[in-house]
Each structure stands twice: as C-alpha cells, then as structure tokens.
Design a protein that fits this description.
- The chain has helices at 15-25, 44-49, 116-135, 171-182, 188-192, 208-211, 224-227; strands at residues 2-7, 29-33, 53-57, 65-69, 74-78, 92-97, 100-106, 142-147, 186-187, 218-222, 230-235, 251-255.
- The strands form 2 sheets. Strands 3-4-2-1-12-11 form a 6-stranded mixed β-sheet. It has a 6-stranded mixed β-sheet with strand order 5-6-7-8-10-9.
- It is α+β, with helices and mostly antiparallel strands.
- Helix 3 (116-135) runs parallel beside helix 4.
- Strand 6 and strand 7 form a beta hairpin.
C-alpha cells in the first residue's frame, strides 16, 4: 500500500499536475498541503472522477490540508490541533483510512525569524508534541505526514551554512523536530536511506531544481506499529520538473497491507 504526501502549492492552479500524477502513480492514500482554497472551492468533483474519496480543510488564499483515499472510506477524527482555541489557520487533519490513523499536517513556515511568525511556529510545534504523545498511546498504526517546514540535519539542505538563520533550519526548530522523534517516532526516509542526499523541495529561483539545490522538508513519521510494516520509500522528483508544477515533489512510502 502506497501512502504519499504532496504540497501542491495551490490545488486549483496545480490541478492538472495533481491529476496527472495521481493517474500515473495511483497511490492509495494521499496527504495534500497548501490547498490555498476555501472549502467550497476544493475540486472534489475532479478528485472523485480520478477515483479518490477526500476530506479537506481549506482556507482562502493560504494553508489548507486534505486526505485522499483510493478504495477505502475516510473516517475523519479531528481537524483541530489541540492547545490554541484562537488558532484559525487550516493546518491539521486526522482521519482513519484502512485502519491506519493518518495525520496530515502543514507546519508554519516561521519566517521572518525572530518575530511573531517564528513564535507561532514554535508554539505550534509544542502543541504537536503534546498531541503526538497522546497518539502514541493508541493501539493502531499511525503516521504523521506532511510539510513540516524543517530540515532536520545539515544533510537535508543544500549549502546549510546559508540557512542558519532561516526559520526552517534554526537550532530551535531542529531541536523541536528531534524532540518529536525522540518520543518514539521513526523518520521513514532516513530509516531506509540513512546516508543518501534526498530533497523534496526546490525553489523556483536560481535554477534550484536544475542544480539540485534542494531541501528535505516533507516527512513521514511512523509509530512502531506502522514502522514494522515499512517496505520502501521515495520522492517523485520528476514531477517537480513538469511545467507549472509545485515547488515540492510528491513523497511516498510503501507499507505492507
């Protein structure tokens, strides 16, 4: 069974790209981020025609997350990350698909740092830590999936010395990611490819994709029950080379059914 994540950078503007990739690769479960569309503008008719069920939480112009499933019912659990009743940003969605708890998330970017946006990122991470502790108590396979906006190590960023003060690479953010891992989660990509340079994002500027000047910021964190079923993983890097594509590429894992 293939589970994928894809920051589409605008689900309607990139819809032809998304549908083409879905048709070519046929993943079983897909987490989408950065829908950049309110709920009523989510292209459910086209998604359904492609063979997928969907639940989504949109937001006008910004953010937005969705979970797609091919052939399985999606049972939504929550679309709220506990801890801040005043947070109105659409960044979190939990659902059970084929007896796996899928957590689709889109962490804040946090730039410029320091500043209010960076503080919001760190507080969001703290809320995620607390929720993740609770999730680890559940007796079922679980995956935290999506755009974490974190390069965990220097190995995950082209020319790390240029990113030291960026909110995606600041020490506080990397420490927050590793604190999450230390709870008992497994970074699926690094488990299977510990020493390989793997990127999931390439900026639109300075021919970053052509130079492979990328970042690894899209992650799969698996609890022990799902980690035991992990078989393979990869990045559909070629999709980043398509015309009018997202600056992210789809990332996927294969797990035993």
């Amino acid at each position: 069974m293939r589970i994928a994540t894809y920051n589409v950078n605008g689900v309607n503007g990139r819809l032809p790209i998304l549908l083409k990739w879905l048709e070519e690769t046929q993943p079983d479960i897909v987490c989408l981020q950065e829908l950049k569309a309110p709920d009523e503008k989510f292209p459910i008719d086209q998604i359904s025609a492609a063979g997928y069920n969907a639940v989504w939480q949109g937001q006008k112009s910004w953010n937005g997350v969705a979970i797609l499933s091919k052939g399985h019912e999606i049972k939504e659990v929550t679309r709220v990350l506990p801890g801040d009743p005043d947070d109105i940003q659409s960044r979190y969605l939990e659902a059970v698909v084929n007896d796996i708890l899928i957590v689709c998330l889109y962490l804040p970017n946090g730039n410029p740092s320091p500043g209010p946006k960076f503080d919001y990122k760190l507080s969001w991470f703290e809320r995620l830590h607390k929720r993740a502790v609770t999730l680890l108590e559940f007796d079922m396979p679980i995956a935290l999936i999506g755009d974490f906006n974190v390069m965990p190590t220097e190995f995950d960023v082209y020319k790390p010395e240029r990113w030291l003060n960026d909110a995606l690479f600041r020490v506080e953010v990397r420490e927050a990611f590793h604190k999450l891992i230390a709870q008992g989660w497994t970074d699926a990509i690094r488990k299977l490819h510990p020493d390989e340079v793997i990127y999931t994002f390439w900026d639109y500027f300075r021919q970053a994709y052509e130079r492979n000047a990328g970042l690894r910021i899209d992650h799969f964190l698996l609890n022990p029950k799902l980690e035991k079923r992990l078989k393979s993983c990869g990045v559909d890097k070629y999709v980043r080379g398509w015309e009018k594509t997202s600056d992210h590429a789809p990332v996927w894992i294969d797990v035993e059914k």
